[in-house]
């Protein structure tokens, strides 16, 4: 019984796999039963930015934090990318990723070193990055080199690049968690005082977690710009809530220390699939944000209900 | 314990411990406001006039009223990120129900305030009973209110505010703005409740240490639900007044109030973790931020640069508050 | 060679450590003993690098030790096992052992199989019967403590600090630790061993340093000191347990009656409390005494049984119900459960009676004049050392904090007062004040149930004692039967059916 309960703790991630599988099946049924690799590629293209921002949020949540500025960082990186592309693809992307890393480290410095509250800090940096995005690209537009989009989205007919990138993202998240860095992040989230007393330099690790988050958010922004062939200074605003939603739906508790990156990927997929299902339900777009909000509240609330049930069972 | 002569260093530290570090921040805020007004006057000579100050106070009133709710929620150890669309939603309800007719003003007001109260109650129940993190609950509720508002207005807010209603937001009694008078009245009530009532004390206790509060016999749940409900109510009132001020409501009008309302509380010396601070500080914070916005408008920079400076100033203020607190502990 | 010279530390008004100096040689075990609040923990925190001394110096093998945190300490060869265990419950044994330097593969991933194997080797070498893949949070407290000791030893420290390292260990495990300590001595390490039990100091240490009130009173060879001498030096009193106010005064009748209480850890607990009676809860630490007190306060609500106060049946679902009925509870941890550290003395004192109408007059408004009067009366009456009623409680010493906490509950006018180890971490003078207070309260007809980890206190203060073990009442010692020998004897007696 004890072992089963111990396993059940890992169920949260596998639960999200199950939920996605179910919703996906419903989706296919509603579509009339066929689903091609091409369509899978499209789904992957749509969901990849959210997966990346979700993973970014995941690393921050692991150390008991939250980063509301990841959306605007995404806006900045997309805008900066399309402005810099004329100077060369590789330098543009490198510069943008560096910018994301710096943005993340700024958050990390204020939060880890100066011990300011993550919510207030990231609300403030949100404003800063929104502003930077507007300065860089006052109106949506810009140029994306031809062929870049095709390369990163469809690729060959055998395996859409976007699908491969999606899998790669999941693997990346898993890999990070197998490193010493990942282990120490879990330690900090599990018991910060004990981690500190065990010799972990909490401040440095936390800063690195936020830095990584900034980097991933920047990656999300670049990909979004490429796949939509344009940059937009406000695109990230719609990713803030869903990034937290993906984390929560993936079974990662907001107090940190636990959870699998695969869960986050699943969470992003679930949110995206729900959007597609809405289309079938013939509900207007207005319902999208409402449903996103309800899903988030319900997902977290259900954890409380489940915990209550477990407590009542005498666990 | 034996009496030992205390060295001066210990004496100074004890004095600092008693000196409420939360009262240092508003002082800095006041000085900064004065400085910014001086700069404004330099850039636009004659700027600092009674009328202009009253105008600034009017603008600050919207933020100040939202900050009432935010102050209460932050004191309880939480945060309310749903003020944006609660405010917008209430504004839209107000204009749509009243449709520019003064006979419908009261029912419209009731409906608008009710929408805010509902949102707040739901927030409170989620946080108190279901133990959902305030960030998640209010962020989710913000989305819910957004969806609800979009559906209600069908994408386009309609209606307007009758003259009688606009009086409260734009009218003057002598040289004094009605809106500012209204805000002042609310401020006095809020500060009184926080300092001198049983409920205010309990709120401070819940925010500082919920366990101690619980073991002392306080119904933490009730305190939390009331506080979030009041925040929703305050945001709704601000929405009604803002719509009255402009004459109509527009989507997204509440977005500009989220960061500033929280920043006002923190800049005013309140602790984001709860239990410490008061509304007086938030008032100063609100005025500070409004003067800052005005200054930036005078300097005539682009919207993007304005955002950057705004966020930067808030970060600087946070750091300052943290560093002065650190010296006192 | 460890040389500590003149270290000093103040926390607000509390002078925790005053000018402490001592030496410890290689291959030696130095014990550090003292009462709660004597300063032992602060001294070893300074040596271990967790806290910086305000003055003085620490030298290890000739080098000045200026440590900034645990990571620094580990690099310099100082290992500490403190009372708050530094293991992360959510991670496995292996992960905890290799938190910092896990073996990795070429692409930076941790080599899990290798780690587990190495962990198993370490565990086997130290004769620890723990699975390397077990989750630390699932292990019993004793095994966790042993694991942490092993982890500290594996860091190959030159100086090892053990703070109350045997607090969760059974006899076999204590023997295991003794063998480990002997091995370290043979390897010429320095060991600092902190305990509040003399028999342990004698078992483990060569020399002992005795602390009292933040000062080092004496350093001597263990062989040259007797328990009575040590206790005398620790407490500053020549007799071990003198100075209690006179007992008696319990009236007739039944104030509180508990029948067949079933709750977290509790089973079939039944007892009565008379008005004006001081009832003690005894037994080994952690046998349900705190749980019983909290159950009488509604935390958490009982699963079965009944409680009646003054003949009226009570349904206690939360503290609020208990307070309304006239029951007050002074919690175990005053800093995290009893007081708002950053709020003023006045705020803390009046918090519990806010809802009872003692202060407020009209629709919840506070009468400040009355509050000031009540608070200054209390400060004078209880001789609380504070600048004013507006001083934050954090600035007060432990004993004065406890007095504020007590006053908070006295103001609720309880009929029954529950005290959970109320003199823990409190200086001697305040302890006696509290004893007098308890007796005076009992004289007015209030019933008092108190738990103390100090047997002498139980003997000196209680009219009757309920000795608990495993969540039930083993024996009720009536007036006249109460003695240290009786309490200890019953507490250690094995269960009748085991």
Tell me what the structure shows.
Chain A is mainly alpha-helical and 315 residues long. Chain A has one domain (37-310): ABC transporter involved in vitamin B12 uptake, BtuC (Orthogonal Bundle). Chain A has helices at residues 2-31, 37-62, 70-84, 89-113, 118-136, 148-153, 161-178, 180-190, 192-197, 202-228, 240-249, 261-280, 286-312. Chain A is globular. In chain B, 74% of the residues lie in helices and 1% in strands. Chain B is built from 14 helices and two strands. Chain B has helices spanning 8-18, 24-43, 50-75, 83-98, 105-128, 134-153, 163-170, 178-196, 198-208, 210-215, 220-246, 258-267, 279-299, 303-328, and strands at 172-173, 176-177. Chain C folds into two domains: 2-235, Rossmann fold; 256-492, 3-Layer(aba) Sandwich (Rossmann fold). Chain C has helices at residues 40-48, 70-75, 93-97, 112-125, 141-154, 171-186, 198-204, 227-235, 289-295, 319-325, 334-338, 345-351, 368-382, 398-410, 428-443, 455-461, 484-492, and strands at 2-11, 14-24, 28-34, 55-60, 63-64, 78-81, 159-163, 190-195, 207-212, 215-221, 256-263, 266-273, 278-282, 304-309, 312-314, 327-330, 416-420, 447-451, 464-469, 472-477. Chain C is globular and about 70 Å long. The relative contact order of chain C is 0.10. Chains in contact: A-B, A-C, B-C. Chains A and B meet through helix 5, helix 11 and helix 13 of A and helix 6, helix 12 and helix 14 of B.
Characterize the biggest β-sheet of chain C.
6 strands, mixed
Q: Strand content of the residues of chain A, in percent?
A: under 5%
Which outline of chain C best applies?
A: globular
- Main β sheet profile of chain A: none
Name the structural class of chain A. mainly alpha
State the low-pLDDT regions of chain A, or none.
1-9
How many E-type strands of chain C? 20
CATH topology of chain A: ABC transporter involved in vitamin B12 uptake, BtuC
Report the CATH superfamily of the largest domain in chain C: P-loop containing nucleotide triphosphate hydrolases
What's the mean pLDDT score of chain A? 88
Largest interface: A-B, 45 and 45 residues
How many structural domains can be distinguished in the coordinates of chain C?
Answer: 2
Computed structural class of chain C: alpha/beta
Supply Rg of chain A: 20 Å
Instruction: Output the number of helix runs of chain C.
Output: 17
């Amino acid at each position: 019984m004890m072992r089963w309960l111990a396993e059940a703790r890992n169920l949260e991630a596998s639960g999200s796999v199950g939920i996605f599988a179910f919703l996906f099946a419903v989706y296919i049924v509603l579509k009339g039963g066929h689903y091609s690799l091409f369509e899978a590629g499209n789904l992957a293209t749509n969901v990849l930015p959210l997966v990346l921002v979700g993973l970014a949020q995941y690393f921050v949540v692991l150390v008991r934090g939250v980063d509301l500025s990841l959306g605007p960082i995404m806006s900045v990186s997309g805008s900066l990318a399309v402005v810099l592309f004329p100077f060369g693809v590789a330098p543009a992307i490198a510069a943008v990723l560096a910018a994301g890393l710096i943005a993340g480290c700024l958050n990390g410095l204020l939060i880890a070193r100066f011990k300011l509250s993550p919510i207030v800090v990231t609300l403030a940096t949100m404003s800063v990055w929104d502003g930077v995005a507007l300065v860089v690209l006052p109106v949506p537009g810009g140029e994306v080199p031809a062929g870049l989009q095709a390369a990163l989205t469809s690729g060959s007919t055998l395996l859409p690049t976007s699908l491969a990138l999606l899998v790669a993202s999941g693997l990346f998240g898993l890999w990070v968690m197998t490193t010493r860095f990942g282990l120490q992040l879990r330690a900090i989230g599990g018991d910060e005082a004990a981690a500190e007393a065990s010799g972990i330099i909490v401040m440095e690790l936390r800063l690195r977690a936020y830095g990584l988050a900034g980097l991933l958010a920047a990656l999300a922004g670049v990909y979004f710009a490429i796949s939509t062939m344009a940059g937009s200074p406000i695109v990230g605003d719609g990713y803030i809530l869903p990034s937290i939603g993906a984390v929560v739906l993936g079974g990662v508790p907001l107090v940190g220390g636990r959870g699998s990156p695969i869960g986050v990927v699943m969470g992003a997929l679930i949110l995206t699939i729900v959007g597609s299902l809405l289309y079938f339900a013939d509900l207007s777009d207005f319902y999208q944000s409402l449903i996103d909000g309800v899903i988030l509240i319900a997902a977290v609330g259900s954890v409380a209900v489940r915990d209550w049930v477990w407590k009542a069972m005498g666990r | 314990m034996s009496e030992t002569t205390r060295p001066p260093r210990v004496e100074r530290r004890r004095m600092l411990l008693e000196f409420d570090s939360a009262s240092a921040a508003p002082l800095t805020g006041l000085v900064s406001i004065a400085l910014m007004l001086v700069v404004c006057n330099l850039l636009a000579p004659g700027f600092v006039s009674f009328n202009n100050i009253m105008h600034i106070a009017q603008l600050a009133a919207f933020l100040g009223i939202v900050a009432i709710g935010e102050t209460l929620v932050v004191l309880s150890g939480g945060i309310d990120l749903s003020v944006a669309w609660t405010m917008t939603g209430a504004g839209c309800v107000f204009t749509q129900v009243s449709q520019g007719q003064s006979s419908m003003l009261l029912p419209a007001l009731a409906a608008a305030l009710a929408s805010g109260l509902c949102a707040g109650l739901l927030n409170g129940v989620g946080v108190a009973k279901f133990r959902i993190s305030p960030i998640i609950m209010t962020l989710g509720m913000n989305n819910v209110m957004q969806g609800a508002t979009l559906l209600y207005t069908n994408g386009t807010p309609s209606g307007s505010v009758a003259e009688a209603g606009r009086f409260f937001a734009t009218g003057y009694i002598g040289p004094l703005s009605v809106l500012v008078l209204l805000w002042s009245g609310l401020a006095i009530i809020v500060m009184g409740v926080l300092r001198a009532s049983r409920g205010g004390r309990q709120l401070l206790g819940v925010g500082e240490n919920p366990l101690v509060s619980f073991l002392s016999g306080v119904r933490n749940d009730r305190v939390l639900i009331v506080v979030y409900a009041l925040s929703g109510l305050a945001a709704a009132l601000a929405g009604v007044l803002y719509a009255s001020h402009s004459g109509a409501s527009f989507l997204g009008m509440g977005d500009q109030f989220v960061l500033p309302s929280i920043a006002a509380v923190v800049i005013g010396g309140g602790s984001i973790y709860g239990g410490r601070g008061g509304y007086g500080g938030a008032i100063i914070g609100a005025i500070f931020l409004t003067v800052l916005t005005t200054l930036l408008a005078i300097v005539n920079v682009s919207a993007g640069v304005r955002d950057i400076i705004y966020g930067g100033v808030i970060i600087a203020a946070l750091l300052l508050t943290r560093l002065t607190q650190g010296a006192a502990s | 060679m460890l040389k500590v010279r003149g270290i000093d530390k103040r926390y607000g008004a509390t002078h925790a450590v005053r000018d402490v100096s001592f030496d410890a040689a290689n291959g030696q075990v130095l014990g550090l003993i003292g009462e709660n609040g004597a300063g032992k923990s602060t001294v070893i925190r300074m040596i271990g690098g967790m806290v910086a001394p305000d003055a003085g110096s620490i030298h290890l093998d000739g080098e000045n030790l200026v440590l900034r945190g645990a990571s620094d300490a580990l690099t310099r060869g100082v290992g500490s096992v403190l009372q708050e265990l530094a293991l992360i419950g959510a991670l496995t044994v292996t992960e905890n052992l290799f938190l910092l330097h896990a073996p990795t593969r070429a692409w930076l991933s941790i080599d899990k199989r290798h780690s587990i194997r190495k962990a198993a080797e370490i565990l086997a070498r130290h004769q620890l019967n723990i699975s390397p893949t077990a989750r630390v949070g699932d292990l019993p407290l004793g095994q966790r403590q042993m694991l942490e000791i092993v982890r500290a030893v594996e860091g190959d420290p030159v100086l090892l600090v053990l703070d109350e390292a045997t607090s969760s260990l059974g006899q076999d495990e204590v023997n295991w630790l003794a063998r480990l300590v002997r091995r370290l001595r043979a390897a010429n390490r320095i060991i600092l061993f902190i305990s509040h039990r003399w028999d342990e100091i004698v078992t483990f240490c060569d020399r002992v340093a005795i602390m009292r009130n933040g000062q080092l009173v004496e350093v001597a060879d263990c062989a040259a000191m007797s328990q009575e001498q040590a206790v005398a030096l620790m407490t500053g009193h020549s007799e071990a347990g003198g100075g209690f106010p006179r007992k008696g005064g319990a009236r007739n009748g039944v104030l509180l009656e508990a029948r067949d209480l079933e709750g977290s850890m509790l089973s079939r607990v039944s007892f009565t409390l008379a008005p004006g009676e001081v009832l003690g809860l005894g037994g080994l630490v952690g046998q349900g005494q705190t749980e019983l007190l909290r159950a009488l306060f509604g935390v958490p609500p009982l699963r079965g049984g009944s409680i009646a106060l003054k003949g009226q049946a009570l349904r206690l679902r939360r503290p609020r119900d208990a307070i309304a009925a006239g029951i007050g509870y002074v919690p175990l941890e005053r800093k995290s459960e009893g007081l708002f550290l950053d709020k003023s003395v006045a705020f803390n004192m009046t918090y519990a009676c806010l809802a009872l109408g003692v202060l407020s007059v009209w629709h919840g408004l506070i009468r400040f004049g009355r509050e000031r009067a009540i608070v200054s009366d209390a400060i004078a009456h209880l001789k609380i050392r504070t600048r004013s009623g507006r001083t934050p409680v954090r600035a007060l010493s432990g004993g004065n904090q406890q007095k504020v906490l007590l006053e908070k509950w006295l103001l609720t006018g309880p009929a029954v007062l529950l005290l959970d180890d109320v003199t823990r971490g409190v200086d001697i003078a305040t302890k006696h004040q509290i004893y007098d207070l308890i007796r005076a309260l009992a004289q007015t007809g209030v019933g008092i149930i108190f738990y103390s980890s100090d047997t002498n206190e139980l003997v000196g203060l209680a009219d009757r004692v309920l000795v608990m073990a495993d969540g039930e009442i083993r024996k009720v010692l009536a007036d006249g039967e109460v003695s240290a020998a009786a309490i200890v004897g019953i507490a250690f007696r094995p269960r009748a059916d085991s």
